[in-house]
Design brief:
- The complex is a heterodimer of chains A (649) and B (176).
- Chain A is of the alpha/beta class and 649 residues long.
- Among the domains of chain A are: 13-103, Ubiquitin-like (UB roll), CATH 3.10.20.740; 136-280, no CATH class; 356-476, 3-Layer(aba) Sandwich (Dimethylsulfoxide Reductase, domain 2).
- Chain A is built from 20 helices and 28 strands.
- In chain A, the strands form seven sheets. Chain A has a six-stranded mixed sheet. Chain A has a five-stranded mixed sheet with strand order 2-1-5-3-4, with helices on both faces. A five-stranded parallel sheet of chain A has the order 20-19-18-21-22.
- Chain A is globular, with a radius of gyration of 27 Å.
- Chain B has a domain at 37-150: Alpha-Beta Plaits (2-Layer Sandwich).
- Chain B is 22% helix and 16% strand.
- Chain B contains five helices and six strands, in the order αβαββαββααβ.
- Chain B starts with a helix and ends in an 8-residue tail after the last strand.
- The chains are: A alpha/beta (649), B alpha+beta (176).
Chain lengths: 649, 176
């Protein structure tokens, strides 16, 4: 039996604004104050980047204790017996004057600045009591740089907090952006014009406390108080980073990172942030179509069932295939087996190739709630092996997590020919390349993690990853890849490519599935449920338009099996922009927006099942999935694990 | 006594009536006759131009945020040269209460109130004014102010050449 060891946890007690605060040792006075809801203004301090002591705006007065007088609260670790005042006249005057200095060179351009309304500098300037400019001398100016198509640079607004360079170089390992100049001429930029190279450069927009870096893709479009926003999950890859899509007038404008310490922390990657806004695509299917002709929902649904039933009568059972995908939200995915049931078509297909299907099945069946690696596990890993994956494609945010582990001393091993060295170079880390998983000496390290890609990973190797003793992160092709793999593995779903190529399939229902056009040739009846204008939608005789992820609530299960809810941001409908030829919005409004008769995929599936004589559940997530129905979209989500048993619910 | 009080009251009233019969009438015979409101009278709203003839409105959304009845809506856009302006701008005068908060909020003095109070229409939709109905060719009450000259970013002039600005710094210079 092991001896019980009592560790004395040091919790220094201090008093902040007459309130007693217990804070763990090592945290700053600023963080201790924040933990009890006392806000101290700050610019250079950031929860993910720590302190720099550069802005001098978090001044507090130490009334008693080991340190006395005006101090910078972000630089001062808590100590027993400190008495802190944030409201002392000396501290207030200090903060007001510092803000005034910071504002000396700040331009007078808030009306034409995209940060206006969501600007930390605006907030703290007003809060600090500096309302009217007293200094009337000239302001220093800078020449801006072209930083690529996504990020706008306006150096005149800079207040020298150093957040951007600390994020870019230290956190994200970029080397093409830095700080130049001296004294009052400090300049944050590249050595010469050109797009930022880091795959995480978009976070400069979120992290800058003022408008030096703004999102160029949403330049001059809307203000914070007019935004349509809701907690959401990035549909870009299987990592499932938490995001806030920003929309206005039914048009998706930009994507902003949303904090979730269990998944993405504070940041997201550029691939997710600057992804093309497909929800705004004017070519999206917006009305049900039968043979290219607009039809009502009832007509189209009847036609779909009638034609597919004819196929089944003609060619027998198994001649119709229902195809789901990794981007279909879990609500729809969990109902898909019912649809293939009423069409007597066996298990739905989820993945394209035989190898990918087997790799996904292998990955999902060896992951439990215990051995799955979350993003936090990757960050704290003692050693990381990346197996057959280019994380820049399959899960960029994991690459940022790998860098944080590497900064703490964890070696990074790239295993297999599909794990290029360029990915680790993109975040400025050194990695060792290996040929086989057996060569990776994971056992000699504490807390090893294997990140495996199902796109190129060998199913045989994937199935044995749990024997390495490492925590496993398997990456899937889409945001609900784990959910798709879970359902596919349970029902024995086969590869879609092989089934279509065999010629046995005479009727196809593609539910938000991306199927290459050449595989669709020669299939007599193709029906598509989708919100994108995919090749299946182009080829389909019957099209049922569904809602985009920003237009409906839903759930994605990410790479570690964490189910996360996302919420509706926009009411479905054509964007106001472009509706009226005169340029302004229509002068007469109808009750429902044009092009807004879209339905979530789960509802369409459920309606089809009911029309075909089946009994779909009332709610999309019910029965064994009922516990996912009440997920808090702003919470941490719920880890399912790969082996979800029927009585697990 | 009550009777005396009543008679006094009647006589006082009659006296007031008689007094006003001999006075000059205050009624203005509108619309044949019109009074001139003061220049600061708050009525029909206009969008003015800067001294160089450019649109002053930068579509910053402050007026629509300040509007207590939500009668202003707009969409900002970027035009060649980095200028920000309204792609469309709409004021619904059937809803406007002429409180003047929009003009007060405007940082570029673009939106201004005018004394033109005669904006009755037979169709309520004619009271929904678009940008082309609002935009005028003059500077309104302040003809001289040009926001971009003072903004501190180079849009209408090269960087560092606006009012209250130093020339751009040489970041590669080593001198203190």
């Amino acid at each position: 039996m092991r001896e019980c060891i009592f560790i004395k946890v040091l919790m220094p007690k201090l008093i902040i604004d007459k309130r007693e605060v217990d804070a763990p040792e090592g945290v700053s006075v600023l963080e201790a104050a924040q933990s009890v809801g006392i806000v101290i203004p700050h610019f250079c301090w950031h929860p993910a980047l720590g302190k720099a002591g550069a802005c001098r705006v978090c001044a507090v007065k130490m009334l008693d204790g080991p340190v006395k007088g005006i101090q910078m609260s972000c630089m001062l670790p808590v100590q027993e017996g400190m008495v802190v005042s944030t409201t002392d006249p000396d501290a207030v005057a200090m903060r007001r004057q510092v803000i005034e200095w910071l504002m000396i060179n700040h331009p007078h351009d808030c009306p034409v600045c995209d940060e206006g309304g969501e600007c930390q500098l605006q907030d703290f300037t007003i809060a600090g009591g500096h309302g009217i400019r007293r200094f009337d001398g000239p302001k220093r100016t800078h020449v801006n740089q072209y930083l690529g198509p996504n990020i706008e640079h306006e150096m005149n607004r800079c207040i020298q907090c150093y957040r951007c360079v600390r994020f870019y170089q230290e956190h994200a390992g970029g080397s093409d952006f830095g700080v130049m100049g001296s004294a009052g001429r400090v300049y944050f930029g590249r050595f010469e014009h050109g797009p930022l190279e880091s795959p995480f450069s978009g976070n400069l927009v979120d992290i800058c406390p003022t408008g030096v870096f703004t999102d160029r893709t949403a330049r001059f479009r809307a203000r914070y108080w007019d935004y349509d926003m809701a907690p959401s999950v990035c549909p870009g890859c299987s990592v499932g980073c938490n995001i806030t899509p920003v929309a206005r007038y039914r048009e998706l404008l930009k994507i902003v990172a949303r904090r979730n310490d269990r998944v993405n922390g504070w940041f997201i990657c550029d691939r997710g942030r600057f992804a093309p806004k497909e929800a705004n695509d004017p070519l999206r299917p917006r009305t049900p179509l039968v043979d290219g002709r607009e039809a009502s929902w009832e007509e189209a649904e009847d036609a779909l069932l009638r034609r597919l039933n004819e196929i089944v009568e003609l060619y027998g059972e198994g001649s119709v295939l229902v195809v789901g995908s990794s981007r279909l939200p879990f609500e729809g995915a969990s109902l898909l087996p019912l649809l293939s049931g009423v069409l007597s078509s066996g298990a739905p297909g989820w993945f394209a190739t035989r190898r990918e299907t087997r790799a996904a099945h292998a990955a999902v069946s060896l992951m439990t709630r215990e051995n799955g690696a979350s993003m936090a596990d990757v960050m704290n890993a003692g050693c990381i092996a990346i197996y057959e994956s280019d994380l820049r494609e399959e899960g960029p945010m994991l690459l940022l997590a790998v860098r944080q582990a590497w900064r703490r001393g964890a070696p990074v091993l790239l295993v297999g020919e599909h794990s290029p060295l360029e990915q680790t170079r993109a975040v400025g880390i050194e990695a060792v390349q290996l040929h086989y998983m057996e060569e990776a000496p994971l056992a000699i390290f504490d807390r090893p993690v294997v990140i495996a890609g199902t796109k190129h990973g060998d199913p045989e190797v994937m199935a044995m990853l749990d024997r390495t003793g490492a925590r496993i992160a398997a990456l899937f092709p889409g945001p609900n890849g784990f959910g798709a793999a879970l359902l596919s593995a349970e029902q024995g779903g086969g590869p879609v490519g092989a089934a279509l190529a065999s010629g046995r399939v005479k009727g196809l229902v593609a539910v938000e599935a991306d199927i290459p056009a050449e595989l669709l040739e020669g299939i007599p009846v193709v029906a598509a449920l989708d919100w994108r204008a995919t090749s299946a939608v182009q080829a389909a005789a019957i099209v049922l338009p569904t809602t985009a992820p920003v237009e409906s609530d839903g759930t994605y299960v990410n790479f570690e099996g964490r189910a996360q809810k996302f919420c509706r941001v926009i009411r479905p409908g054509l964007p106001v922009k472009g509706l009226d030829p005169a340029g302004h919005p229509p002068r007469v409004h109808e009750a429902a927006p044009p092009g807004g008769d879209l339905r979530p995929a789960w509802r369409v599936i459920s309606d089809l099942v009911r029309l075909a004589g089946g009994t779909p559940p009332e709610e999309p997530l019910s029965g064994r999935w009922a516990r996912l129905a009440g997920l808090d979209p702003e919470g941490e989500g719920m880890v399912l694990g790969g082996r979800v048993l029927p009585n697990d619910a | 006594m009550r009777v005396v009080d009543d008679i006094t009251a009647i006589l006082t009233g009659l006296w007031t009536t008689l007094k006003h019969i001999l006075r000059r009438p205050v009624t203005v015979q509108y619309p044949e006759e019109k009074r001139t409101p003061s220049p600061r009278y708050r009525a029909r709203i206009i969008l003015t131009r800067d001294p160089d003839g450019g649109e002053r409105c930068v579509a910053c959304y402050l007026c629509s945020a300040a509007c207590p009845v939500d009668c202003i809506s707009m969409q900002a856009e970027e035009v060649e040269g980095g200028r920000r302006r309204a792609a469309w701008f709409r004021i619904n005068f059937s809803r406007c209460i002429f409180c003047g908060l929009c003009a007060e909020a405007c940082p570029t003095t673009a939106i201004q109130m005018t004394p033109d109070y005669e904006i009755c229409k037979r169709d309520v939709m004619d009271l929904v004014f678009e940008k082309e109905d609002l935009l005028v060719a003059h500077g309104g009450k302040d003809a001289r102010y040009n926001f971009y000259r003072h903004a501190g970013i180079g849009v209408t002039q090269p960087r560092g050449e606006g009012a209250e600005e130093r020339p751009p710094v040489d970041v590669r210079g080593l001198l203190p």
